[in-house]
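Human: I would love a firmer grasp of how sequence relates to backbone shape in proteins. Take your time, and here it is.
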Amino acid sequence: MDGASHNMSTTFEPTADAKGFRNALGQFGTGVTVVTCQSAQGPIGITANSFASVSLDPALVLWSPGKFSKRYDAFCNATHFAIHVLAEEQLGLGSAFAKNGYDFSPADWSLSEDNVPVLEGCLARFECVQAAAHDAGDHTIIVGQVLRLQTNPGKPLIFSQGQYGGFAPTD
């Protein structure tokens, strides 16, 4: 490790510096997803970067909606949902669902056989049935069993350090 970068490190308790904790989490680059389901008001979506694989057999994935979100109840109560991995050119789609979960006009979408709104043109789409929900502080971890998936070629949209960008592989 480079000594200069080591000397600039900061150590603190996360409860004493919530912004510092959030900034430290932002050092981990993630993909960007839009999660969709049906709600009492109709189709709903939300942009999330809390997506992860859990198991290959059975096929399980997870994501974590925040309890502070006005859309939280709709996603926690949904029996079926879809997670869409966005391509680098889909920043506008991610931004739209971050602002308004009920406006599907920026998306090319349809309803799945489980009545879940599914978006077209994403790098990957995981259509899930809720397998478990676990309380996790100010979020809930929702585990979905993947029923169907679809993939498309392309490069992922990445979120890191409060910014969006593309992926550049190293040789």
Observations:
- The first helix runs from residue 3 to 7.
- DSSP finds four helices and twelve strands in the chain.
